[in-house]
Design goal:
Layout: E1 2-11, E2 14-24, E3 29-33, H1 40-48, E4 55-60, E5 64-67, H2 80-85, H3 90-103, H4 109-128, H5 131-144, H6 149-152, H7 161-174, E6 179-183, H8 191-202, E7 207-211, H9 215-221, E8 224-229, E9 234-238, H10 242-278, H11 284-299, E10 326-335, E11 338-348, E12 353-357, H12 364-372, E13 379-384, E14 390-393, H13 406-413, H14 419-428, H15 445-457, E15 463-467, H16 475-487, E16 491-495, H17 499-505, E17 509-512, E18 517-520, H18 526-531
Parallel strand pairs: 3-7, 3-8, 5-6, 6-7, 12-16, 12-17, 14-15, 15-16
Antiparallel strand pairs: 1-2, 1-4, 8-9, 10-11, 10-13, 17-18
Helix pairs in contact: 3-4, 5-7, 10-11, 13-14, 16-17
């Protein structure tokens, strides 16, 4: 259980949440909703203990499993299975057993004898923790999230960003914590894995808070909704499911409008009467009392919800370029003994629309990184054409300097713009006032997405390489971005699980990995998008 008492959250000087009190008890499956930048990720961090509130107190009883939006995976040389098992401490036991087993053949009898005893002790410890049955459970859970046995026995550094994210989700679920805090758990999941996760969370008996822009998951899983209102800095608590919440929230808003209108009408009448009475010295005190009464009337009404602001995204006309601004031939890439793909050829023509498809781990992100020059291919080459200006959106936001502020990142990306022009662009992406001085490292996933897109806008790119650009976005921001991409005149190479993003793009061609097959787009490929 988690109990929050009078907590206050801030991002710098900006108030995110004022004096909120609530609890997360066994059986509560809570959907935490609100626009990007409202403070959902900050609240989840604070509840997990990864950050502290500006005021108030949080009490936790029992174990808490927390999946952050951008999970840190620790030592990248660790096997994926060991990372999952680390949730119960099984990874350390397995590593100790491996070392002891190696020492059992030591020529020194004393060393070998000691290793045998240590192996036996660790074997007993493994049995206490669930032993090989726990390993089988972890492998089964990982398989349900699209991680086959082959992937589990690879080091983390050889996995794609989507696969690492799945490993972290598997680790949190395997930990069997009494309370789960999941921030965008469906990111990078294919359709089958999302269905499995919904069923798993529906049957979860502990306390749960989930942040997700997957409306189907929220609708099917949650039995309570916490709405974090960015405009009022309040947490509205609805002890009902998703559909009932939508109805009740609209009814609450109509009630607020009625109450506010009535209070304003009465306050106006009192104010007018007070103004008349002030003209007579004998009634000055009565006028003052009437004025105070009018102010109390207005203060006693709840403020209306203002419409959430949405980032305004419009790409400028791309810089002129030749007919084929980007070409790649014979691209191959391996990580250690793991071959990702071989002999991939492609040519990106001016204004073309290309979708890259493939299962997780097929090399979609790797291909974009090679095209962007972030990594070098093992074989083949990437050749820029005449006038190429490349814009790259990375799903892990690696293009952002997390040590520098929002404004400093913009200054690096667009040094030719004046300070006021840079601030105006950031303002259109909802970074205003003190927000521009925040270090990028403290931003939520949605805020990082908005910043990365802002930097693309000022790049003047004529070829955009986009890796899951709609992840972490609220529905309104997602629609804005999809509209901008549809209107963009330059070329786009897109990697996504979002079927709506593919529809908005209206692709002309598709590249299927790891084979590297290139084909004209047809609706026959549409079913592969969510499965990729």
């Amino acid at each position: 259980m988690i109990v929050a008492s009078g907590i206050e959250l801030r991002a710098g000087a900006r108030l995110l949440l004022a004096e909120a009190s609530f609890q997360v008890a066994e059986g509560d499956r809570i959907g935490l909703v609100g626009r990007n930048g409202a403070g959902k990720t900050t609240l989840a961090k604070v509840l997990s203990g990864a950050a502290q509130p500006a005021a108030g107190a949080i009490r936790r009883t029992g174990t808490v499993g927390y999946l952050p939006q951008d999970p840190r995976t620790g030592d990248l040389d660790v096997l994926a299975l060991d990372r999952v098992l680390s949730a119960r401490g099984l990874d350390e036991v397995r590593e100790g057993m491996r070392k002891a087993e190696a020492q059992m053949s030591d020529p020194d009898p004393a060393v070998a004898e000691k290793a045998i005893r240590r192996y036996a002790n660790l074997s007993d410890r493994l049995a206490v923790l669930g032993g090989y049955a726990a390993e089988a459970q972890a492998a089964s859970l990982a398989a349900s999230l699209g991680l086959p046995d082959r992937v589990l026995h690879q080091p983390l550094r050889t996995l794609s960003g989507g696969q690492r994210r799945r490993v972290e989700l598997a680790r949190i679920l395997f930990g069997d914590s009494q309370t789960l805090l999941l921030d965008e758990p469906t990111n990078h999941l294919d359709a089958d894995s999302i269905v499995w996760l919904r069923d798993h969370l529906k049957n979860y008996r502990g306390g749960l808070i989930v942040i997700s822009h997957d409306v189907d998951l929220i609708e099917q899983v949650v039995n309570k909704v916490f709405y974090l209102d960015a405009n009022r800095s309040t947490l509205d608590i609805y002890n009902v499911g998703w559909k009932a919440y939508l109805t009740q929230r609209e009814a609450d808003e109509r009630r607020r409008r009625r109450e506010r209108a009535n209070a304003e009408r009465q306050a106006t009448a009192l104010q007018a009467q007070a103004d008349k009475m002030r003209a007579k010295a004998t009634k000055a005190k009565a006028a003052q009392n009437m004025q105070r009464r009018a102010e109390r009337l207005l203060a006693g009404t709840e403020s209306e919800r203002m419409a959430d602001r949405v980032a305004k995204l419009r790409f400028p006309v791309p810089a002129p370029c030749g007919r084929t601004p980007l070409t790649a031939t014979g691209l191959s890439k391996s990580y250690g003994s793991l071959e990702v793909f071989t002999d991939v050829d492609l040519a990106i023509d001016r204004g073309s629309r290309v979708v890259v498809l493939g299962l997780n781990g097929a090399g979609k992100t790797t291909l974009l990184r090679l095209l962007a020059g972030v990594e070098m291919p093992d074989t083949g080459n990437v050749a820029p054409g005449h006038g190429l200006r490349l814009g790259y959106y990375a799903q892990e936001h690696e293009t952002l300097d997390t040590e520098r502020t929002v404004l400093e990142n913009m200054r690096t990306a667009a040094p030719e713009l004046t300070d006021s022009e840079q601030r105006r662009v950031l303002g259109s992406f909802l970074f205003s006032g003190d927000d521009v001085d925040k270090p990028v490292g403290v931003l939520s996933g949605g805020e990082k997405t908005r910043l990365a897109l802002a930097l693309l806008v000022v790049s003047g790119a004529n070829v955009l390489l986009l890796d899951e650009p709609t992840n972490n976005l609220d529905p309104a921001s997602r629609e804005e971005i999809l509209g901008a991409l549809a209107a963009f005149r330059g070329a786009i190479v897109l990697v996504t699980h979002d079927e709506g993003a593919v529809d908005a793009l209206s692709p002309e061609r598709v590249i299927v990995l790891p084979e590297g097959t290139e084909d004209a787009w047809s609706e026959d490929f549409a079913d592969l998008v969510a499965l990729a």
